[in-house]
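pasting for ref. prot 1 ->
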Amino acid sequence: MPWFVYRKLIKQLMSKEKDVRNAAFEKVSGITSPRLVGKIVRAFKRAPGKWERTQLAEAVGKIYSRYALNTLLALYVREKDPDIRAVFFSSLSRFRDEQYFIDVLVENLDKTPDSIFAIKNILKWLGDSGMVNGLTERLMNSDWAYKNIQYIILLSFLPGNKPRDLLIRFLEDPEEMVRSEAAALLGNLNDPKAHAALVQSLEKDPSAMVCKTILAAIHTHPNKLFIAPIEKIINNNQYDHETRGYALDVLSVINTSEVIPVLLRIIYEDSNFDFKLKAVEVLCKMKDKSVIDPLKDIMVNGTNSRFRFLAAKSLLDMHWEPAADEENIYCLIALKEWRDVEKIGTPAIEPLFHIQKITNDDDSEFFLVNIDTLIVTIYSRITTLCFGTPAAVQSPEIFQNPAIPHITEQLTNLRYVQMDMENFDPRIMEKIVTQLINAVGEKKLKAKVVLKVKGDLQEEKTNVKNLLKNVFHTIEHEPANE
């Protein structure tokens, strides 16, 4: 077509007369010269109607040039009408076998987010063609992280395993932003090979950003493969407090008995109270029989009253029932049921001393005061210390086989000391008597406390017998069992 005809057609396109413009629009679809792309676009700007924009998309789509492709892409991004966008998209698809199509895509990856997601649609119909491989190589060799990140986003829309294999390559990128974006999309794939790659990345990538991204992916698709690397993160002080705490949160969604040893190591070995508390909370959320023994251990040996309370409450929520009196006592102490503990009396002394000993300084002062007060109250009601065979009558006022350190000055109402010579090691008798003298007082023992001996005291050394006669008010003898 002669140039003067082009000029005449362009002039008609820019006419103010609608009929003249429409006639020119119908002719313009036959123009294929790259020189006229810009003039056609400027002419169509004066005619912003839907029909005119449709004609523009078809006309420029027939002009095979880099400039035409760029123009189409820019118009496609700006277009709001979905019907006209479909025409632009159809026109763009005509270029997919052209080598410069790859160059145009790369150049437009640094445009606005709208252009990025326009390219996303183009990549979707490219599918597994060689063009995608060419684009991949171009961007993998790019030193601009933003291009890589946007391309990574686009890869997630490709079919089959191609996105997974390409994204795994991006986990080695020198830019942490790129690695982070690749990790996020790999996590969304919920694919075993993707998970294996994320495990390796979690173990060796020093970036906190990448670490958090992978943890977020695990939170969505939990897998026990991540337990070991997550524990390393929690124990690694090079990570900030927030990252380590998030790792512990993520561990909670991996609902398997294999996380229990990890949680117990944190509870008993970590120096951070918040981590220890969170580990207890995670363990309590695992409503499975495998956590019963660990929770019982925390209820008895937990170093903080909050740990013990959560463990006991969780056990009861699981309809656990104490198998022995001692378990019941520890449960009551953990739940701070002080009146019930007081009613039990002397059987609660050993557990109370144990709790008092293991409780850390970070516990509330009020809790420790309650323990001390309860011990004093129970001691003040003790009337009998029994060594050897337990007393025939069980009573809150009878202290069975107390440890020597637990014979204290708080035994204000002590009246009897019972010793079964057949079931009692006489070698510690002198230690017991000495402790009684120091704790209770020699005068009080002589004035009020009666020694009840079961069995033959004659076999004891003379100095021991004399000591007993001099210390106690009276010595009563009971025959040994035949």
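and prot 2 ->
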Amino acid sequence: MSNHLPPPVDLTQPLPARPEPDRHYTSKESAEEIAKKIEKLEAEAQRYLNADIPIIGNITMKNEVWECTVAREDKGYEYRGICLYSPFHKLFETDMLIGAKLSVVRYVMKRIVGYSSYFQCPAIIIRDGINRVVDIAYYRPQSEGKKLPKYLYKSNEKKPIKRGEHFLYPFQIEMERLIAKHEIIFIGEGLKNAVNALAHQVPYISIEGAANNFNAPIIEYITKLRQRGKDIITAFDGDEAGFKAYEAFCKAIGEAPANLIEPDSGDDFTDYLKELHQNF
């Protein structure tokens, strides 16, 4: 895989003021109904972000990340990275993030990735464009006797309809900061890929699921980025679902750009980031 990564941007600085959203959606819910849902989601998100993380047996710790070094005798050098507690290894596909900045990973773990003791899995906090929690996704949740989806979201009754009028795509506030600084922007699918991109300070617009039909607002948003001279690189997963999402995106924009991830490879953007930094 070739190196398309832009230089890093510090995400830990205070969040900038947000303009009105590009999204053309008006909620049918009253402002009071929306406010009540968001208040409950905010409180639940804080519980996950401040949860005790199971380490070994009954031992728990507050969520933290730290710098670590691992020797690679076969390659004659050491890896330096950011270590994670075991409940987050599947989300980041590693126990040590190589090439990531400590302050940025701490930002991600304090603001975006928490832990649900009920589902025994990471809880990904999703905010809208004006910094309100509008959804929570549980990544690979566990429940005895039940087969749950890879991503389990809050039910429609517990969140604003379509996540409200200020939502466009996950982590938009942080990603727009990265987009403003770089000419290359990746587009793909999956919250996992978006979280990993953010940890590595890479601009990545996630459509979340391969079933997304690329509605007009997100295509308009991407079109405006291209008009501003941004270089769009598609990075859809190298599987059947990813290929279908790639085809849908090509149809929506009327072009067929080459996809970064090879088809039928089984790889995704997280694999790309991991391979890139391990071989750097």
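The domain at 168-280 is CATH 3.40.1360.10 (Dna Topoisomerase Vi A Subunit; Chain: A, domain 2).
The two ends are 11 Å apart (CA to CA).
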